[in-house]
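General statements about sequence and structure are easier to judge against a single worked case. In the encoding step, the backbone of a single protein was reduced to a row of integers, each denoting a local shape. The record that follows shows the chain in one-letter code together with its fold in token form.
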Amino acid sequence: MQIAVVTGASSGIGQSAAIQIASRGTGVILTYHGNENGARETVSTISDAGGTAVALPLNVGESETFAAFRDSVAEAARVVWQRDRIDFLVNNAGFGRMALFEDTTEEMFDSLMRVLLKGPYFLTQTLLPLMTDGGAIINTTSNAARSSGLEAGYSAYGSMKGGLMVLTRYLAKELSARGIRVNSVSPGATRTRIADDSFERFPEVIPPIVARTALGRLGEPDDIGMVVAMLLGEECRWITAQDIEVSGGFSL
């Protein structure tokens, strides 16, 4: 059985991706930070459907913990699946913060950088020795880094996600010698817990977003989770170095 590591899978896009990946017969090691109940829910959903999953704590903003996390991943793979390698990595964990450029503080900039760019960079580097040749990596970026999703207030967040897009292409180039494919997905506005459940707290922002979306609704986690699972699959074996916008045609 193949194994995927999915970070930030206690809710939203990560939770959906973990469930969708598991539904294709892949074992899942999912991570959580601050939402253990959500992680347990993800594991239970996968188990109830006949799959296998393990939840491990991880703060992707603390790169000094990555070596110990790699050891935990190796142990889980060995104990649960009797394997010493993983096949897939989904760098999904993140958070959103908004501020106009002139109001963006160094603290905000640095916290976004640690989680959204430095974290995936060095977590991938740390887990690479465990990855099989011919595997795949997916990075969750954002249409905030594309012209279609350019909105005031996201200069720091969008810059980090843009950096992750560039990293995706470099990893695809450098890891191609091992047959490892690397792609990213750019969600548009999606109904998740990001930014402290902003869509729940401010439902009035939803109609204007829907009005600008060609397919006429807000995105749901499964809209993106299914694409992540597909990109890891055999049907996408000839796709690498691509960023795929999954936004229902936002600003089309």
